[in-house]
Design goal:
The longest helix has 19 residues. The relative contact order is 0.13. This protein starts with a helix and ends with a helix. It contains 8 helices and 2 strands; from the N terminus they run H-H-H-H-H-H-H-E-E-H. Strands 1-2 form a two-stranded antiparallel sheet. The protein is mainly alpha-helical. Helix 3 packs antiparallel against helix 4, helix 4 crosses helix 5 and helix 5 runs antiparallel to helix 6. 46% of the residues lie in helices and 4% in strands.
C-alpha cells in the first residue's frame, strides 16, 4: 500500500523478534502448558473457530489448526533466533506460521519445526537438527518469556514497535530507558490485529518525519 503511493521511496524494516509466550516464567513441565478441554469449552472453541475462519476468509486464509492439548513453542522460538544468524528469520517465520495455522502442523513439535526449516531455502537441515538437540538459546528464550510478561507487562501479541533512529526517534520496552528523555517523540506502536490502513498511517507518519529531518 505504501509503495503504491510512493513508488520511488524505499521503505525497509529491520526486524528484531523477542520471543513471547503467555507461560511467562513457568517451568517447562508445568501441567498448565497442556490445554484441558472442560465442559462447555467445546462450544466456545467452535464459536472461536467460526469467528477465526470468517476473518480468514476475508483475508484469503483458510485456517486449519492442530488442536493438540500440548502447547510449548520453545523449539520454534529457538529456531527463529538461529535462522536470524543466516538472515532467514522472516522466511522461516512465514513457513512456520503458514504450516501452523493453515496445515495443522503445530509449531510446538520439533518435527514440524524441522519440516519448516527444510522448506526454507538456504537453511542447513543437519545443522538445525544438531542445534535443536542442544540446549543452545533455551535460557535466552525462557528469559525473554519472563521479561516480556513480568517486566515489560506485555499481555497481547503481536506487538509491533517501529523506531526511526535516523530521525532520533527511539523508545519502547526494548530500548534503553535513557532514550525516553532524549528522543524527539515516542515510537509508533501497533497491535498486530490493527488494520492495514492503520499501519499505512504509521508509515506515512514515519515518512513525514524523515522528510522533515532531511
Amino acid at each position: 500500500m505504501f509503495h503504491k503511493r510512493h513508488p520511488l521511496v524505499n521503505l525497509a524494516v529491520n526486524v528484531t523478534r523477542h520471543p513471547f509466550s503467555f507461560r511467562g516464567s513457568r517451568p517447562l513441565d508445568d501441567p498448565s502448558m497442556e490445554v484441558s478441554i472442560q465442559q462447555g469449552d467445546t462450544l466456545r472453541l467452535s464459536s472461536y473457530s467460526s469467528t477465526l475462519q470468517r476473518l480468514g476468509d476475508a483475508a484469503g486464509i483458510s485456517f486449519h489448526v492442530d488442536r493438540s492439548p500440548y502447547y510449548n513453542p520453545l523449539d520454534s522460538q529457538r529456531a527463529l533466533l538461529w535462522a536470524a544468524r543466516y538472515g532467514k528469520q522472516e522466511e522461516l517465520a512465514e513457513v512456520l506460521s503458514r504450516n501452523h495455522f493453515e496445515k495443522a502442523m503445530s509449531s510446538s513439535f520439533r518435527s514440524n519445526v524441522l519440516k519448516a526449516i527444510e522448506e526454507t531455502n538456504e537453511l542447513n537441515l543437519a545443522e538445525a537438527k544438531e542445534f535443536l538437540s542442544s540446549n543452545e538459546l533455551v535460557e535466552i528464550v525462557l528469559n525473554s518469556y519472563k521479561d516480556n510478561v513480568h517486566l515489560h507487562q506485555i499481555v497481547s501479541i503481536p506487538l509491533v514497535i517501529f523506531n526511526l533512529p535516523q530521525c532520533g526517534i527511539e523508545g519502547g520496552p526494548f530500548r534503553s530507558s535513557s532514550l525516553l528523555t532524549t528522543t524527539r517523540r515516542a515510537p509508533w506502536i501497533k497491535q498486530g490485529s490493527n488494520t492495514p490502513e492503520a499501519f499505512l498511517l504509521s508509515f506515512e507518519s514515519m515518512y513525514s518525519e524523515f522528510k522533515r529531518m532531511n
